[in-house]
Specification:
alpha/beta; 13 strands; binds S-adenosylmethionine; binds iron/sulfur cluster
Length: 361
């Protein structure tokens, strides 16, 4: 989680090739969680990668890639070619991972993943039908549980521990009391990677008052008792941004935790645009016209790296870093994006996004 890099004077060394690729296979989602950027912003294009595009853009480089994360901002299982793309990836020795809402994780997808995908995160916020509907805007809570039950049966049948499962849930003022239910859920579905808790970023005014830093005492108490509850039950519990105290300490010098991402990873969008990390808005190039290697060694990324961990020439993206592992949860401007007209990788605010008012729930 936290890095030991000190500000500006200890520049990381870039790998010869990006050993870790983050790729959004689709810019769509089957849900509209009330808290998610997708409810308030549109991607530059609503699109998805075909198996042919994936093979042309990444095929020759797959033998050099060590880790492949098949999502960052959208829902990977909405990609129609998910299965043929996953088959291509499985021909190589690559650690694979993605996060999903789990609704489309039916028998066919589970059949392809079990014994082959390394890590799988399932995101759930709200642990009964009504709470799931309130936060995730969908009646699919039972479906997600059925899908997980079936996936675990397949794991037992095939005698495999893959994919290693994890639950992700969003911490905001009205979900803090749900953390014990999240821990029980992870235990019930044999989630050996436990529970990861992300700290709410507000994309709409309605959510601003729910941000953890504006509810410090409640957040501290909930995190402390959840840690104890998880420990008693042998479930891992990870606050992605650390406790408020740890995060404030680790982000004091730079405004974000020291970040090594652009020295090891690149982030690819479904239209093949390439970015230095999953939350940056500086576009480095497109794989339709340049290779991954050319972008990796190009002047745009070299210039971006200079502004990641140096307070004197910080990139605007990094100054207000929104990455759940590196962001500050202590500064309100990082976590309140309700007035911003743009979002990650060129997303723009919807003309009239409806606010999820209490009376609509
Ligand atoms: C944007 S989703 C994309 C992958 C997939 N659709 C999923 O839900 O797992 C990635 C993660 O971001 C979390 N997330 C979404 N909106 C958030 C917000 N406003 N603040 C903090 N975490 C958020 C989700 O709960 C999910 O675990
Ligand atoms: S959090 Fe995931 S499932 Fe929910 S709307 Fe966003 S991308 Fe879709
Ligand atoms: S925006 Fe954040 S995650 Fe991305 S390179 Fe900058 S500091 Fe790292």
């Amino acid at each position: 989680m936290g890095s030991t890099l000190s500000p500006s004077n200890d520049e990381p060394v870039a790998d010869a090739f990006p050993v870790h690729i983050d790729i959004d296979l689709s810019s769509k989602c089957n849900l509209r969680c009330t808290f998610c950027h997708l409810s308030y912003f549109d991607p530059p294009q609503s699109t998805q990668i075909t198996a042919g595009q994936f093979s042309a853009a990444l095929g020759p480089d797959l033998p050099k890639i060590k880790k492949l994360t098949l999502f960052s901002k959208y829902e990977p299982l909405t990609c129609k070619d998910f299965l043929p793309i996953f088959e291509q990836v499985c021909c190589h020795e690559i650690e694979t991972y993605f996060s999903t809402n789990g609704v489309l994780l039916g028998p066919e997808i589970a059949g392809a993943l079990v014994g082959r995908l390394t890590f799988l995160t399932v995101s759930v916020t709200g642990f009964d039908t009504a709470a799931y509907k309130k936060h995730m805007g969908s009646d699919a809570f039972a479906r997600v549980q059925e899908n997980l039950t079936h996936l675990n049966q397949l794991k037992r049948q095939r005698q495999t521990h893959l994919p290693q499962l994890r639950l992700s849930t969003v911490a905001m003022s009205d979900t803090l009391n749900d953390l014990p239910m999240a821990i029980d859920f992870a235990r019930r579905f044999d989630m050996t990677e436990g529970v990861q808790v992300t700290s709410l970023i507000a994309y709409d005014e309605f959510f601003v008052s729910k941000i953890p830093i504006l509810n410090q005492e409640a957040f501290r108490n909930a995190a402390r008792s959840a840690q104890a509850y998880a420990k008693e039950r042998g479930v891992k519990l990870v606050l992605q941004s650390g406790t408020l105290e740890e995060n404030a300490r680790e982000t004091l010098d730079l405004g974000h935790r020291a970040c090594h991402i652009p020295w090891h990873r690149l982030s690819i969008q479904p239209n093949l645009d390439v970015f230095p990390c999953p939350v940056a808005s500086v576009r480095l190039g497109n794989l339709g016209t340049r290779t991954l290697g050319a972008i990796w060694n190009g002047p745009e990324l070299a210039a971006f790296r200079l502004g990641v961990n140096d307070p004197d020439r910080m990139n605007p993206d990094c100054r207000d870093c929104a990455h759940c592992r590196t962001k500050s949860v202590a500064r309100i401007e990082v976590n309140d994006r309700s007035q911003s007209n743009t979002c990650y990788a060129g997303m723009t605010r919807k003309p009239a996004a409806p606010s999820p008012r209490e009376d609509r729930r």
